[in-house]
Every structure is written in C-alpha cells, then in structure tokens.
Design brief:
This protein is of the alpha/beta class. 44% of the residues lie in helices and 14% in strands. The chain is globular and about 80 Å long. It starts with a helix and ends with a helix. It binds one DNA strand through α2, α4, α7, α9 and α14.
Length: 577
DNA sequence: GCCGTTTTCGGCCCGACTGTTTTCAGTCG
C-alpha cells in the first residue's frame, strides 16, 4: 500500500516549506493532506483510478495534481525542487526538541550548520550563543535535544506506554491534592505507538501536583515546569507532559489533550462558526464572554451539536462529518467479546495447560476458547505432529465434559508453507472446530509470491481465519511484503476471516487495514495469541485496534455466541451453501 | 493550498512555556 509513502512525501514537503518560511496555511494544507491520506481506509491509487481524489479530505486541485504525479512517475517535481533548496540535514535538525524551522534556518544561515553532527559541534564550540537571539541556555538545550533524538528516535509501542501511563496516573491519584487524574493523548486514542504521554490532573493545588510530578520515581529530566504545565523525560526515554486544571475544567482539558491535533482544530473551527471558543480551559460564548458548564466530554460535543465521539475515532477530523450526519459507528467494546479463537498451550510453546487456559478464559466470562497450537513444521515452537493433534482433539473432548456453560474448541494454528500449501492435510483439518492459518517461515519472499501464498491458504475450505496477516512485530520486524488489499479482496471472496492479533507487539491487522477489511465485508477475529494465561488480558489492545478501525460488534467473529459462531465459521457456511 | 446554506475571496484554532528579550518570537501540543 502506497498511502504511507505518499503521506510521508507530502509531510516532508510541509517540513521543507516550513524551513523556507513559506505561507503557514499552505504548509498546514500539505500536513492535513498527508495525515488524511495516511489514515485513509482505502488505497489512494484506487481512489485516483476511480477519479475520486477530490473526495479526500484536504486534497484539492493542487495536491491532487501532486498525488497523480507521484502515482504515475514515483516523484513530485515540486518536492524535488524544494529538496534542492534545503540541505537534507536540516530536516534532521528540526526533529531536535526545541529547534523549529526558524531556528534551523537561522543556524544554517549564520553558522552554515547543515547536519546534526555540525550542529552538535557548533554547540560544543560555543558558536551557537554568538547568534543573535540565541544564548548559552539554548545551546545546552540543543545538546540535550540532540542526545534525545539519537537515543530515542523511535515512538514507543502502546504495550510499553500504556502500563507506564497507568502507573503514573495511579501515583498521582495517591496525592491528597489530586481530585482526578487520567491519561490522554495518543495513548488514550489507542494508537499503536505513542510519541509521548499526556496526563491531566484536576486539582485546586497545581503547584503541589507539579512539584510531586517532577519528583516522581523514574523521572530522569525536567524539560519544562510552569504554573500549570510540566514536561519530564522518564529514564526509559519516554516524555510525559502534565496539565493541572481546576476540577471543573477537567473534562475540557481531557478533550483538549486527547487530541488529535487535527480533531481539535476541526472542533474549534466548528465551535467558532457557532460563536463559541474551545480551549483546554473550557468553552466560552464569544458574545457574552461566559463559560459554558462542561462536566463531561459529552458536554464538549453537545456544545457544538455533535454526539459523543469516542477517542479512538478522533483522528483526521473526518469523524466530525460522520458525527454530523449520524454515521458514527457503535464501536465494539470489551464486554462484547465472547471468546478467544487463538491461544496456545503446553502442547506446543505455551506456558499453561489447556485446562488452565480454559479456566482463565472462563473466569474472564468467555463462552469459548480455541486452542490453536502450532503445526509440525514449526519445530522451534514444538509444533504438533498429526498424531499429537488427534490426541489433543481427544483431550479437549474429554475436558469439555466439565462445563455446560463453556466450550473449548479444538483448533490449530497451521503453518502456511512457502508454496502456499498447509502443514496438515484436509482430512485432519476437517476434524477441527476452527483453523487459524499463519505464515511463520520464508518471510522474505517477494510480494507476489507471498500474496499468492496466503490467498492459496484462504482457498482451502477448512481455513477459517488468517493469523497475524502481515507478520509485523512492532519495532523489531517490518511486515513482510504482501498486498494487503488483495488479501482483503480474497478474504471477502472466500469467506475467510482476518485476525486482529491483539498482542501489543503485533496489532496485526493494523487499524487502517481492519477498517478496509470491514468495508469489504470481511469478518475480523480479535485474538490474543496468548502463550500463557496472563496473555488473555491483552485482548483490550486488540479491541482498541478494532475500534480504531471503526468496527462494530457485528463485524467481529468472536463477538458471536458459541452456536452462532460455529454456524458462521467458513467451513459451516460452505457446507450449508 | 484548501474550502464554502453566512464566503469562489478571504479567511484558515488556541494557549502555555522558554529564552532572550525590555515587549516578544519561536516552539510545542
């Protein structure tokens, strides 16, 4: 999918224009278009081919021409012109916290600094303080900023950031001065990675809260400390921003800091058109200068005539249009989940027995769980031989006598072999209740081979679900080369479900692809792939990803009650057909 | 560069914090 590459190109045009001190609104236009294309639930190429570029938010005549040029030639001439006018290194320099486009340009013009290394040298030589408007303090900050960029350039996975956010909130809630505390920002929106954490506190004693916050265990550096805001860096490199407000401003502040930036801009534009002014302090009637009472986030939306928009949907501003026209989805929730269709046991590489996994699932209120251990070719993970699988099916049958309110489904996570065949024969697969098929080998195949390989697996009548369809591991392994759009089309055609693997290292399918799949009428299965009982708790990451994909419970296979689930698995629908 | 039942031209969100300044620009979210 080219959307992300194109979005990156447009965003870079915005960065370059900013360094060149161009019209800020033109810059914003490129940023908006980039963001909008990044979040598009459809391939930009398809949209272009069908002549629908004009329908994309933030894409007008000018940028549409650039998009077309990029799709046909692979580059945008205007972008290349800009690149020639701005040394490449300046793009790195504006990533340094505290150094923006103005300072980067100033440093380049005054000192000839054109890379991160040269900037560091200039700071160490004390040359930066010789520039008018910059001083010794700025020099120090830049050096610290450079260190941060080098040490921590990556965004933090949600699976790391969320526990940190919860722990900070818990620490703050212990303070007597704190009435309410919550995390906001991209962590609350459930983005798969977060740049930093945003924490909101309601309190009548902001100084006390700020003081305690900057002294929390794990704080390595204080970046800023004001009357109501503070920023720190944790020792693990994660930045945390705190905003302290009076308790009656809490909801407005929570909304503001939850963002996204684009969502806030769209909300404020709408408010302005209604004679209102929205800020993190609340909502003011411009005419009377009176503050509107805002007790909950619901009130913020109601003030501008909209229904509540869940945080996971607050991204590019297009959610406002959906809200206005009453097209917001009723998003799937944790309590809608009735089971987990992909977990492991001690039979392969899991830590707990089938019974332990089942009891843990039952304790969570689930109606069913599918044991999907690895197949034989995955030797490193203790894959089951056909004989072992038959024995496992028998054990599951025995175990199921224990309950009349819970069922273990006999399943497998069968390997899709490099040639697209499966690791068990059809006769064996037909004896299972549910089959997840996944790629675990030969991940470096070319795009066409990989795409055909997975589609071949979907054509098997006993493959109900494709597991972690793109194979990525966040921060460690890129997705393998595969045409996700064709996978989705084939899933729709064959009736195969696609997994949203809830493990926070995977989140695969990702939000945007899940939305595409939903739009194509494909079932999604939100599974934890748990290898131990505690792993079942990661379901919420998958549900959050599903919500970011605008999924309702009617799109999620494992929101079905047991009997309905069994009827809706591909194998059974086939049989009935 | 985008966009429009208040506009096809003239708008385009809002406020806090920092550092280097005698009143504010740049940066950030």
């Amino acid at each position: 999918m080219k959307n992300l590459q194109l979005a990156a190109t447009l965003a870079e045009i915005a960065d370059l224009l900013e360094i060149l001190d161009e019209n800020p609104f033109r810059i914003r236009a490129y940023r908006r278009a980039a963001r909008s294309i990044e979040l598009l639930p459809e391939s930009i190429e398809t949209i272009w081919r069908e002549g629908r570029l004009g329908e994309v938010e933030g894409v007008g005549k000018g940028i549409a021409a650039g998009v077309e040029e990029w799709l046909t030639t692979g580059a945008i001439a205007f972008h290349q012109e800009l690149q020639e006018r701005v040394p490449r290194g300046l793009l790195e320099i504006v990533r340094v916290p505290g150094v923006g486009p103005k300072t980067a340009r100033l440093l380049y013009e005054e000192l000839g600094v054109r890379s991160l290394d040269e900037l560091e040298a200039a700071c160490r030589a004390g040359r930066v303080r010789t520039v008018k408007g910059l001083g010794a303090k700025t020099e120090e900050n830049i050096l610290r900023g450079i260190e941060r960029v080098r040490r921590h350039s990556e965004r933090t996975p949600l699976g790391v950031a969320l526990p940190a956010a919860r722990s900070i909130v818990a620490e703050l809630e212990r303070l007597p001065a704190v009435r309410r505390a919550a995390y906001a920002g991209s962590a609350r929106r459930g983005r798969e990675t977060v740049g930093d954490l945003d924490i909101i506190v309601g309190s009548d004693d902001a100084p006390a809260v700020i003081q305690a916050f900057v002294g929390l265990p794990g704080v390595a550096q204080v970046l800023a400390q004001g009357r109501e805001k503070a920023s720190v860096v944790l020792s693990q490199g994660l930045q945390v921003d705190l905003l302290v407000v009076r308790d009656h401003q809490f909801a407005a502040a929570l909304h503001h800091f939850t963002g996204s930036k684009e969502h806030n801009i769209a909300m404020r534009e709408l408010a302005k058109s209604l004679g209102l002014r929205i800020s993190e302090h609340g909502i003011m009637d411009e005419k009377t200068q009176a503050w509107l009472p805002v007790a909950t986030e619901d009130d913020v939306f109601r003030a501008v005539g909209l229904p509540y928009i869940p945080p996971e949907l607050r991204e590019d501003g297009s959610e406002l249009a959906a809200a206005k026209s009453s097209h917001l989805p009723r998003l799937v929730e944790m309590q809608d989940i009735r089971g987990d269709l992909h977990v492991h046991s001690t039979w392969s590489d899991g830590r707990h027995t089938i019974l332990e996994m089942a009891e843990a699932a039952r304790a969570r209120g689930y109606e069913y769980i599918a044991i999907a251990d690895h197949s034989r070719s995955l030797g490193v993970a203790g894959g089951l031989s056909p004989e072992e699988l038959v024995a496992q099916i028998e054990e599951i049958r025995q175990l199921n006598r224990r309950w009349d309110d819970f069922r273990i489904l006999a399943g497998a996570e069968v390997d899709i072999l490099p040639d697209g065949t499966l690791d068990y024969d059809d006769e064996l697969l037909s004896r299972l209740d549910v089959v997840v098929a996944s790629v675990h080998s030969a991940m470096n195949q070319d795009r066409e081979t990989m795409t055909q390989r997975i589609i071949a697996a979907m054509r098997n009548p006993y493959v109900d679900i494709i597991g972690h369809p793109t194979g990525r591991v966040l921060g460690w392994r890129d997705p393998y080369e595969v045409d996700v759009e064709r996978l989705i089309a084939a899933a729709a055609e064959t009736g195969t479900a696609l997994e949203i693997n809830a493990s926070p290292e995977r989140l695969d399918l990702k939000d945007v692809h899940a939305r595409m799949a939903k739009d194509a009428g494909v079932w999604l299965a939100v599974n934890t792939d748990a290898h131990r009982m505690e792993g079942l708790e990661q379901m919420h990451y998958g549900v959050t990803t599903a919500r970011r994909g605008w999924l309702e419970k009617g799109h999620v296979l494992n929101c079905l009650p047991l009997e309905e689930l069994l009827r809706n698995l591909k194998r059974h629908r086939r049989r009935e057909a």
